[in-house]
Design goal:
Helices cover 70% and strands 2% of the residues. The protein is mainly α. The chain has a domain at 546-585. It binds one DNA strand through helix 4, helix 6, helix 8, helix 10 and helix 12. Keywords: Repeat, Transit peptide.
DNA sequence: CAAGGAGCAG
């Protein structure tokens, strides 16, 4: 038991306590005062503490940096430790930064340094830095070290230079399992399963890593999940990771039954196994099952992490299940699941799609860090809830804060403008999109522009947008022009749209229904009958419209023409009321 | 006086 400290502990005592990684978080908390004074009095204490922090899982890079800054004259070991932490936590730039700092201070590192640095290069910095490091490795005589050499292979392979990796691999006098595995992973990453399989067959011995690389490759890279399964069944010794990988192979191609079967027969599971399945159900249109599974996971005593939490939130979003979403939000807060940008963004999206603008805004306002996705979700959410002005406000806030934007930001703003009829504002932003923000409009943006103009009756301009856009117009573009023609009664452009849709092979029943409605509206009955006949001979049928909503935890489904819902009368009364009030506000 | 390279969820 760690006693709560009234007196200050000596650095030596603290260090002996820090030997057990599991208790470190508590020690950091309880003995914060002692640690501060130890940092002050014992010059080597910070270095030891830094190492202790690096052993934590999850590590806190921010805390590690604070500790690092307390080290008076960091040696190679301390630099290695801070570089390792950052490389491991996915901060490659930071890792390289400390590598550079080390060099600046006249320390050149040892053969322990390079594998960390190479990992950082491999993950995102590109192999140009890798090539530089390679030169450095040779210069310092570390090129005989297998750890370093394997690090180089993986760095090259992860940057698409698998040829360079292979050259290194072939030149090895000695290889170990990791050399083989790194090379095979390189081929799999590149999508060359044949070469990967060849190497795999040539291997003198294999471990679960080797098998998993191939299973994962067949399952996700090439979608040959049956081949992956054959390998899986042949494996002599299976570990947790390869089970998860196999399950993920099934979920990523939508074979949820097989995934579930495998999941049920697992000897042990971790939070990743649950997350894979939860997310799989959420991604493949079975959010109810995803939520059930999430509950099962809690029941079974597995603590959810950020990933599984996001999966469950997404499932709520898809079902429009506000109550369950709110409960989840509350639960995550209570259990102190880390709230990062991704989780919070998922919550905003959920609240928006459930129509709860206030709760969404609460989360948004409480965030100290926001990603592009966060802003986008906010803008899209406000727009689709009919608050175009508010969406524009968020966009302008983004501008003021110089937050990075992407194409989805603009798509969101344009759509928001369309829904609220803010034509001039939308046009202005479309103009500035390329000139000021340097973002090239895609087909979707032109589509939004056509919608924006079309819905307010500026059909000629909408048609000109389609005519002048730099890429080939898609069927969706003609479709929205057609829809606009229906609202604003323009037979000529409607016929043109249908003609173009037919050329693109996108003339489904809905298209002809629209056209015949337009004819009917203009009293052109001959044309109406012509279209109806055309539809009948073409074997087309109107698709049935349906929607679903959650109330008090129950999901209600509505199908066009179906009157089996117990509250049908009341529902229609409300609808009548709503349409009356819409008419009166116009 | 401690440490490194390869595989699974977003």
């Amino acid at each position: 038991m760690i006693s709560s400290s009234s007196s200050t502990l000596l650095p030596k005592t603290l260090l002996s306590l820090l030997k057990k990684p599991k208790t470190i978080p508590r020690i950091l908390q309880i003995h914060a005062v002692s640690i501060t004074s130890a940092l002050f009095f014992d010059p080597s204490f910070a270095a030891r503490l830094l190492f202790a922090v690096s052993e934590l899982s999850p590590t806190s890079p921010a805390y590690a940096e604070t500790v690092f800054s307390q080290i008076p004259r960091p040696d190679t070991f301390s630099y290695n430790t801070i570089i390792r932490i950052h490389a491991h936590c996915g901060n490659p730039l930071k890792a390289i930064h400390f590598f550079a700092l080390m060099r600046k201070n006249g320390i050149f590192g040892d053969n322990y340094t390079y594998p960390f640095v190479l990992k950082a290069c491999g993950s995102m910095l590109g192999c140009k830095v890798g090539v530089l490091i390679h030169g450095e490795v040779i210069k310092r005589g570390f090129d005989e070290d297998l750890f370093v050499r394997n690090g180089l292979i993986s760095c090259y392979c992860k940057n698409g230079e698998y040829g360079l990796g292979r050259k290194l691999f072939d030149g090895f006098v000695a290889r170990d399992l990791v050399s083989w595995n790194s090379m095979i992973a390189g081929y799999v990453d590149y999508g060359d399963m044949e070469e990967a399989q060849n190497l795999f067959d040539e291997m003198p011995e294999r471990d679960p890593y080797s098998w998993t690389i191939l299973i994962d490759g067949y399952g996700k890279k090439v979608g040959d999940v049956d081949r992956a399964r054959k390998l899986f069944d042949k494996m002599p010794k299976r570990d947790l990771v390869c089970w998860n990988s196999m399950i993920d192979g099934y979920t990523s191609c939508g074979k949820m039954d097989q995934a579930r079967e495998l999941f049920e027969s697992m000897p042990e599971r971790n939070v990743i196994s649950w997350s894979i399945l939860i997310d799989g159900y959420a991604q493949h249109g079975n959010p109810k099952e995803a939520l059930d599974l999430f509950q099962q996971m809690l029941h079974q005593g597995t603590k959810p992490d950020k990933v599984s939490a996001v999966g469950a939130i997404t499932a709520c979003t898809q079902m429009g299940a506000l109550d369950q979403g709110r409960w989840l939000h509350f639960y995550l807060k209570k259990k102190k699941i880390l709230f990062d940008v991704v989780v919070q963004t998922a919550l905003i999206d959920m609240y928006m799609k459930c129509g709860s603008l206030d709760l969404a805004s609460d989360v948004f306002d409480s965030m100290c860090e926001r990603s592009v996705v966060t802003w986008n979700v906010m803008i899209v959410g406000l727009g689709s809830n009919g608050c175009g002005r508010l969406a524009l406000e968020i966009f302008h806030k983004m501008e003021r804060e110089r937050a990075p934007m992407d194409d989805l930001t603009f798509l969101g703003v344009l759509t928001a403008c369309t829904h609220t009829g803010l034509v001039s504002e939308g046009l202005e932003i479309f103009e500035r999109m390329k000139s000021e923000f340097g973002i090239e409009p895609k087909v979707e943006h032109y589509g939004a522009l056509v919608d924006l103009l079309g819905r307010t009756g500026r059909l000629r301009e909408a048609r000109n947008v389609i005519g002048k856009m730099p890429m080939k117009p898609t069927s969706a573009l003609w479709g929205s022009l057609l829809a606009a023609c229906r609202t604003h009664k323009c037979v000529e452009l409607a016929e043109l749209s249908v003609e173009q849709l037919a050329k693109l092979g996108a003339d489904d029943s809905g298209v002809y229904v629209l056209l015949s409605n337009i004819y009917a509206g203009e009293g052109m009955w001959d044309d109406v009958w012509r279209i109806r006949k055309l539809m009948k001979t073409g074997g087309m049928r109107k698709e049935i419209g349906r929607s679903a909503v959650e109330v008090d935890g129950t999901v209600h489904e509505f199908i066009y023409g179906d009157s089996s819902h117990p509250f049908m009368q009341e529902i229609y009364a409300v609808l009548q009321d709503l349409s009356n009030s819409v008419v009166s506000t116009r």
